[in-house]
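FAQ
Q: What does a multi-component entry look like?
A: The components come first, one per line:
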Amino acid sequence: MSSNGFKSGSNLEKVLVAGQFAFTGECGPPKGANVDHLKEKMEHLRGCVDAINVTDNQTAVVRMSSAAASAIMVAAGLEPNFQMVCRDRNRLAMMADILGAYSLGIRNMLCLSGDHQHFGNHPESKNVYDIDSMQLIALVKKMRDEGKFLNDEDIDVAPRLFIGAASNPFADPTDYRIHRLASKIDAGADFIQTQCIYNMERFREFMKQAVDMGLTEKAYLLAGVTPMKSARMAQYMAKFVPGMDIPESLIERLKGAGKGKQAEEGIRFAIEQIEEFKEMPGVAGVHLMAIEWEHKVPEIAERAGVLPRPNV
Amino acid sequence: MIIADRKPLDEIQEMVAPYDRILLVGCKGCVTVCNVGGMKEVQVLASILRIARKKAGRPLDIEERTIERQCDPEYVEQLRDDVDQFDAVLSMACGVGPQFLSEAYPQQRFFPTVDTKFFGGAVQHGIWEERCAGCGTCVIHFYDGLCPVARCSKSLLHGPCGGSANAKCEVSADIECIWDKIVKKKMENGRLEDLLKVKAAKDWRTARDGGPRRSIREELVQ
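Then the predicted structure of the entire assembly, as tokens:
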């Protein structure tokens, strides 16, 4: 632990340690070297979130690297949450990128397995999976806390990163999901961001288990929210996105809003969710994944009453 | 055993296109058991190639042979008197066969007629599935007899990932999520604890990542 008492000293860590309700956003890097486009998207999030997740070749579609896009944010005075998946790199590349990311001023890192390349635009590629997400969490912790590489050699200036992991309370087998979350926390996750939540009833049960098992005492859990743009989007996600639980009642609610008003209804539902998460035991914040809807984040944040963001 | 599938006919026809007299060699090992490269399949492929070439007005002379195993020099040696009498030789064995043949008869050209797929077994008549990735360090006992290295699309040692749905893999509904099976089996048998500890990163040196592998049994080496 560093001298100031923080593991990483990131803004996100400080907000959470201060007991403030955290609010994080997300920004996918461009499909190219279009820095202007990235800057335009990330500027919408300025002042609205505590950290911005920067996705790593999400859905296995090749994009500007998450480390580079994160560094562009750092240079612009925004705080990234650098995502890394296990699909594209072996342990050498991972450790090198972890050191590189830290050197560029990145302080948060989210450790993920990654979607299989089958989903993406290079399905012919070889997948790596040298280590998995659980081992990646443990690796970052070892590098930070022990100052050692995976092979136990000393690191010359260890990377002090705030370690994140993902949890999908709705994927199968559901009985096991809480145990998988516990394992990720044991492995070293400081904070957890969940997959998008739509089935609030099931999530309440999941959180009750997490609280009962003491997990929320050991790590900060941020509830995942993705506002639906339309009933069609909800239907598509329900049908084609694995591990997604979208209640029929939500689809009906969006349909019922009528033409041209479904997006507003989606935002209303997201705001209701955020309001409930603020009060839900064990929930330390919200992770808002407004996919290709970054410009809506200020409005959602405002209406959800999470502004202004704390200055810690 | 090793499971293979026959290459598309077009590809094989293209291979033999320059030649008028070829030897087609089957193998009585794994490829016979998985019905792809045994005596019967040699007969069938030879007939198809003959008919196609006859139709095209350029008959192809094919001799059929099926040896005990193409992965054993002792049996490969049995072809010595014949190999040079042909324009080319086609092997119906796994990827090992054409290489052992090439090494034994460097002056001849050899072509593979099957695509070697995986180590597995028949789950029902006509359907074979992968069970082993040949990683060189077996860990099956940690997962109650189910190998995540071979059977998880991401080879996760700590699964299942968030893409597991209805016991199926996110990659395809035709692929079972082996982690769903591992977790359910552990839970049913009261051994969930086994899965909660973080396992060390796998040492891939014993897999293909360490370079081509050898197995030496000193007592047998003369």
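Q: Is there any commentary attached?
A: Sometimes. For this entry: Chain A has one domain: 16-227+283-291.
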